[in-house]
Design brief:
It is a single chain. This protein is an all-alpha fold. It has one domain. 69% of the residues lie in helices and 0% in strands. The protein is built from eight helices and no strands. The protein has helices at residues 5-10, 24-31, 37-48, 55-79, 94-105, 109-128, 135-152, 156-176. It starts with a helix and ends with a helix.
């Protein structure tokens, strides 16, 4: 197992409430010269969500699968949907269930999204543990970058503009009828 003492120590600390230092694509391009070909392929696989036998990636994908499943189940229950069982509902994680419940109960959808991102950020930190210079630390780093890229798209003014546009369109459609 390779250790990336120098490379990992040059990377900035990522915080959910902090800035996005650079894009995932920039990181992947820069890391191509810093890590082995095999490890670089792992980084790309993690970002793209591809199949992998690596335990870190498999654990991350399981977490994301459980999160999406729990979101679907709780949203459906709120709407009174009693259809077929959801995939992976035989697996549960109480932390995910509770965080999804809080996110869906939030009065502001942005707060709910931030709760879900925070849960994923914490999951990555727990998976890395104390191995700060391993490929697992780099995998967590690139996945955190991906989460920060998602968060950077949450711009209130753009959301308000889109809401106004959709609402205006809806009003015009109603007026036509």
């Amino acid at each position: 197992m390779a250790s990336y003492y120098y490379y990992a120590s040059t990377l900035p600390l990522l915080r959910l409430d902090g800035p996005l230092p650079f894009s995932v694509d920039t990181f992947l391009a820069a890391s191509a010269d810093q890590v082995s070909r095999r490890d670089h392929a792992l980084l790309k696989t993690a970002v793209e969500g591809g199949e992998s036998n690596h335990p870190f990636i498999r654990s991350w994908q399981r977490h994301q699968r459980l999160l999406r499943s729990e979101l679907a189940a709780q949203r459906s229950r709120r709407k009174g949907y009693g259809g077929a069982a959801y995939p992976h509902r035989d697996e549960t994680d109480l932390g995910i269930c509770e965080t999804v419940r809080q996110a869906l109960a939030a009065d502001d959808p942005l707060k709910g999204e931030l709760l879900l991102l925070e849960l994923s950020f914490k999951q990555l930190d727990e998976q890395v543990g104390l191995s700060a210079f391993s490929i697992e630390a780099l995998l967590a780093f690139v996945l955190k970058l991906q989460l920060l890229e998602r968060r950077s798209r949450f711009v209130r003014s753009a959301g308000n503009s889109e809401f106004e546009r959709l609402f205006s369109h809806l009003q015009r459609e109603i007026a036509r009828r």
